Amino acid sequence: MSVRVGIPRALLYYNFYPFWKTFLTELGAEVIVSPPTNRQILSDGVKYAVDEVCLPVKIFFGHVISLKDKVDYLFIPRIASIEKKFFICAKFWGLPDVIRNSLEDIPPLLTTDIDLNRRSLYRSMWQLGRRLRANFFKIHTAYRKARGIQEKFLQSRQQIRSPAEFLALLEGEKVNPLTSILPACASTADRSPKERGDNKNRKSSSCSTSRLESSNGVSSTNNYKIGLIGHPYNIYDDYLNVDIAARLEEMGASVVTPEMLSLTLLYEETKRLSRKNYWTYGKDMLGAARYLARGKVDGLIFLVSFNCGPDSLLTELAMRKIENKIPVLLLIFDEERAEAGMMTRIESFMEIVKKRKK
Amino acid sequence: MKVSFPHMGNYYPAFKSLMENLGCEVLVPPSTSRKTMELGARYAPEFSCLPFKINLGNYIEALDLGADVLFQAGRAGPCRYGLYGEVQKGILEDLGYNFRMQELFPEFGLFSFIKGLKGLNPEATIFQMTKAALMTIKKINLIDEMEHLVRKLRAYEVKKGEADKVFARTLEWVDEARTLREIRAARRRILKRFRAIKKDETRSPLKIAIVGELYVVMEPFSNSDIERKLGQMGVEVFRPLCLSQILRHALFFWEYRDITRKGREFIDYELGAHGGHSVGHTVEFSKKDFQGVIHIYPLGCLPEVSARSILDKVREKLNIPLMHLSFDEQTGEAGIQTRLEAFIEMLERKKIVYSI
User: How far apart are the C-alpha atoms of B85 and B73, rounded to whole Å?
Assistant: First the structure.
């Protein structure tokens, strides 16, 4: 019987699932993903996590608990940095240690230290492969294949039209490239997430202007475009964000997320906004905010979870520095999930957007 | 051109001498007070951490007094600190102030501070820069030595509060020293003055270590002066984390790593900033003659919150009394006092039970 490896459907699952899944299945493991966040998961997470951690980490705890009886290993890699001179939030540095030390009777953790500031991804994955007792050739082919799949995922995720499609894409389904909201730059060859830092392809800046024109001609059923800005685990977790994307669509708005933009574009835009930013996912936020605020959307909504450290400063930076003044809404989620309050805020925001457009 | 900087603990003589030796006019901001914190909290983002708010308050007060260059340490690891400068600059500019923000480390890397020093005064000579750096380091070391003595003396002094008084007076001597030779002379005088404090050697006070986030650990205002409170209760406080240790680790980086490694039973990797040190030190102290550990950090601090979850396990496994205290602008003095008293009482009782 093959080894069952559990991946919690939280945090960086939304960024790296295709890579992890391919790598682990190629090594002969059976991958089990925890169910989408639900009430039980949230309350478990709140119960077991330290009360001061941010909401996504609490939800992560809940997912781990929901998986613990079903799997032989829990896959929780330590992702400290995925590009040179950039970091992932410090909470991810200690995540495996925190889980290991705060939860009792969980299956052994399958972990590897991914820190591109110190060593290569290949070495990290090699270490992981050895823990699953795979041989050299198997690890090598698994690694190549996983990299290929991840690159394809990163390219096709620019063509999604809604958060629902993104989730389908994560699971490996194909997306029709012809009908995207923001047509992708044809020339922007995206590299894998592991090499986002070195930016030799400077064509994207010319791309961004061509996109400006083409995005006007897109046939969309909805009249308004709203940019949803935040971490993927905030945008795509429907339970956490009280299903904001679907609700916006009901109100006649189509949703644009940072994942629909190319990584090079985000990088260039961020450089103009903040020279000091050293968080990889801060780039998604700042870059997307700056780019979308220049007439690409009618309003921006920042999705921030309570007590998120990087976002507390990044949203402040983004809101102060975007040049064009468009309606901006800052939504902060906490474990109470106050749906009615959220809805009121979103509705009044949409009213402003509609009035302004007229 | 008036240069100003945010306060951190009692280190202002050191920062001041850094800028003075570079030939700048220095404006020491008013010492951190309730008003500083309220000013900072009013304009800072909602859940930014406490050091951010206090720094911002310091800046606003300095700018009101006419400063036009603000100084900030700059570049730092995965925690929020590295972004302070940029966000604070945005906030202050929107408030209508006119100034320039100069970072000591504009880029990553040990030697980027040369660029930072040049930014303060483009005409500074190599000699001036070396002298400034040496003076700063010497002063920081001296201040840390004094603080270390005070923490120990508070538990032993016969007349309560004498050590604090001596410290306040001798800090001025450090401030007045203008050359390296004067610093050496001041050090001799200071140590002599400290030796003159009457001590009661018969006491056997509780020994408690303080670990945690570097700013809150060092700035007495932000931690509602926890060290003095403990001292007044007759507790000997030990604090491994101080600015001279951080400077030392910048050069001898393996020492930094070694402290984290002491906790390798619990952590396999760094937690960012000094989170790993909180764990490493706690493990270390549980094996020494410490009766307890207090872990302090600003609310929501990224590395220390991870450390907190791990420290709970350390406490359980190594059986060392440990208390977490998180601070933000709402923290009340009385609440902290009560919790400290309860903790100390528990430790004293434990000490009696174990000594029988």
Answer: 8
Burial call B246-263: b when 16+ CB within 10 Å, e when fewer: eeebeeeeeebeebbebb
CB-CB neighbors (< 8 A) of A91 in chain B: 302, 305-306
Structural tokens at position A345? 């805020």
The partner residue sitting opposite A312, judged by closest CB among B48, B94, B308, is B48
Of B100, B124, B148, the residue that ends a domain is B124
HSE-CB for B213 with a 13 A CA cutoff? 32
Q: How far is A160 from chain B (nearest CA, A)?
A: 31
pLDDT band at A182 (very low <50, low <70, confident <90, very high): low
The model carries a pTM of 0.87
Q: Which CATH class is domain A4-153?
A: alpha beta
The answer, yes or no, to whether residue A199 has pLDDT greater than 60, is no
DSSP state letters, A29-40: PEEEEPPPP-HH
Architecture of domain A164-357: 3-Layer(aba) Sandwich (3.40)
- Do the chains contact at B86 and A276, CB–CB below 8 Å? yes
At A58-77, the pLDDT tens digits run 999 999 999 988 999 999 99
Mean pLDDT of all residues in A124-143: 88
Per residue, the 3-state secondary structure of A225-245, as one string, reads EEEEECCHHHHCCCCCCCCHH
Instruction: Give percent of chain A with pLDDT exceeding 90.
Output: 19
* Residue A183 pLDDT: 44
ipTM score of complex: 0.87
- Pair (B263, B290) in one structural domain: yes
Q: What is the bridge-based pairing of β-strands A109-110 and A73-75?
A: parallel
Same domain, B59 and B161: no
d(CA A221, CA B282): 60
B193 plus B340 within the same structural domain: no
Given CB atoms, is B109 within the 8 Å cutoff of chain A?
no
pLDDT at A206: 37
Element (H, E) at B235: strand B235-238
